[in-house]
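Researcher: Last one for today. Full complex below.
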Amino acid sequence: MTEALVTMRGVEKVFRRGSEDIHVLHQLDLNIPKGEFLALMGPSGSGKSTLLNLMAGLDRPTSGTITVDGQQIDRLSRRELAHWRSANVGFVFQFYNLLPVLSAERNVELPLLLTSLSKKERMQHVAAALRIVGLEHRAKHTPRTLSGGEQQRVGIARAIVTDPALILADEPTGDLDRKTGDGILDLLRSLNSMQGKTIVMVTHDPHAASQAKRRLYLLDGQLSTEMAA
Amino acid sequence: MKFLALVLANFRRRKLRTLLTMLSIVVAFVLFAYLAAIKKGFEMGATVAGADRLIVRHKISLIQPLPQAYQSQINQIDGVAVSSQAAWFGGIYRENEFPFPQIAVEPEPFLTIYHEFVLPPAQKAAWLSTRTGAIAGRKLVEREGWKLGQRVPIKPTFLQAKDGGAWVFDLVGIYDGAHEEVDTTGFFFRHDFLDENRRWGKGQTGWYYIKVADPNKAESIVKRIDERFANSPAETKTELEKAFIKGFAQQMGNIGAIVVAILTAVFFTILLVAGNTMAQSVRERVSELGVLKAIGFTDGQMLALVLTESLLISIIAGAAGILLGWLAVSGGDPTGGALPVFRFGPEARVTAVIIAVVLGLITGAWPAMQAMRLNAVEALRRE
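Model: Here's the assembly. Have a good evening.
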């Protein structure tokens, strides 16, 4: 049996809005093995992004435990979580979220600023990441001069530059046309199959989800169906 | 250092806004330099006044004369090292385009008391041997284009010469200051020439300069001098030179307080302008800051990033303003002589640097706290 990278046990997430408690996740259990490419689907407000944020250590569960690569992250302090994220998680966002004032290579370099690597080493890692996403020739370009697909590739390069165990992608093709989106999905798939990256992708799009090895459906705060791809 | 590129990149985000904010800070510091120099000018060197120097004047006012006969009694008071008579001449040179003070003094004791007036020995000897001789400060000589040996005619306003015409002095010496803050716009001539050539006021002088042997005993000497002439027709008011200068300057109002009030208003306004710029700048990139947090920047690093940005704006613009202000003030007294000591000294420059740093810290504090407390999940939702 493949070793689990992410383990969630009895996870509850309750948001308080005014005097009302909103139960977003109910007693959720989940195992994500290493090397998995998981698509997380469900309607708006079903808790997909909340689940992703919990895995990323950006949010804390109301109860339950979350363990990623042997580290129980729900017990870490804010500062410890920040350090943990910088080493273990890569993010890919729907709207790319690149810093417009920085070139592509400077955007990719950002997570490396939190490491002890020298400038030369950082630039070597950046070049490698840009090569993987096929954008080494656009390294000096600012986001404004890149297409949506290219920006998302830069976003993916930024996510993999520190070689994290887990890549979390929130609607990575949501802002792209089908053809460009397919290119991004191909890239994620190759990162999963060729480099063994564990990827959790939140998506509304059944076509995008079909590219994953496994699909999970989140409905009313619970994983209702689990289907093999 | 590796985060500096990230901080500097933000300056390019809204170039015009950054530029205008920095420009407002530059202007504030140029103004600071000017007002500091004006304040210095009004203090007229009070900060460098000798602790061993006293001024004895008429108790009623400075324009009331004192008897010359007082000098021998003053010299007898224990602790008085040397004294010089001094009288205000108040004459007009040319059309009085650039007025300058002319004071009659006794050369030998005067130069002993004011040892910071540096006069070459040959010129000192010439002054002592020339009854109509006068010395002038370097700034004044340069402004008027005088040369040694030149005759300087000055029309009297109240001290009429015997012949009713202008007083003509021979310029026998040009003094320099021993340091930058010495006023070199003065004109001094011999009191005995004044006595010899004036129509009225014989036996009278304006005030006395005194040098005391021990500055620690200056206060008690002040008392003794005034007690000595109490209940006489011309009672005296003796002061330490510093107090005398400050009192003289305050005849026009408390310039220091006025300057501080203006600068407080200016920097408070700049605080609002720069603070608003920083707050706006952080508000505009909440989602970007959210990304930084998501990829692992700690709360402390977020605080440091925003605070560094604010500090850099303030320090770069402040340094430019200080430099420009310094250059402008170095151009000289814009009043043509009303402010003999007009300089943006090291003390004021250090104060300006401190203000620039404090300005950067204050304007960046609130936005930096916001960036630090930012919830990454909330921030990333704001697309």
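Chain A has a mean pLDDT of 91. Residues 178-195 of chain A form the longest helix (18 residues).
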